[in-house]
Input
Amino acid sequence: MADEDRVKLLVKEVEEKTTAGVLRWLESADMNEFVSVMPGGKFTIKAVGHTDFGYDNEPDGNACLLLCRRADDLQLLKITGSSPGVFQGKLDRIYLLAREKALGIDDAVDEIIAGLDEI
Amino acid sequence: MKWFLENWGNLLSAVGLLVTLVTLARAGKAVEAAEAAKRASEATKYAVNQQGAVHALGDMIRIIAELSTLVSVQSFPSASLRSQDLGRSLRYSIERWDSELGASTLDLAEAQSQVDSISKKLRSPAISQKDCPHLLGLLEKISHVVTTAQAIAEKEGNNG
Output
């Protein structure tokens, strides 16, 4: 079990780097899961989001972060709103940002606005 | 004759010096030749590795095409097996040709994570026809990443 301070710092860093747009998020086969390969390539972080059935088909309903080993996709740590020192709102915000970045929602909106301007 | 008898020692020293200089010159050439051979050997090794990486990436492009077909016809168990092959190939290539793939390594690592998610999805009993368009879109993106990495490796090989 990772200690509270480490987990809090990890969540804070992921949130900051995602907000700054320096962490690249990608789509996965699950529409409610987005993945980012960490610098160095050894680990991935997955942002798993709001659905009726969450990760592994377990009822979930809240966003969480999964820290995995990239080589074999082994899940090392699951960070949820009930993890000590972690606020659910922060995880939800990271998930939504990750989704926005992975799907290129800003670009899509810009393209639509540009298209509408031409009408 | 008298001069020779008086200076034979100096003469021998001069001959000795000459022999030393010739030997050193030959040794220098041998070192140069050895260095050139080493450089050539390294260049050959790099070219062979580069070629290996290009072939491996080519194989992956074929697997992705096959996998896309299997997903299109909803042959999920077979697609699951091929996706695992693809994941293994990506994993191996990233480890084996890390230096040859250079900047493409991170892109391929990201592609591998996406392939792992596809494998997991294809193994899930909940997989259905409605998942196919999303999986096919993802495979197209992965194919683009692998094709780009192959083109870069090929170009590097030709330059090297």
Helices of chain B lie at 2-72, 76-96, 98-101, 104-123, 132-159. The radius of gyration of chain B is 30 Å. The CA atoms of residues 67 and 145 of chain B lie 16 Å apart. Chain B has one domain: 45-159.
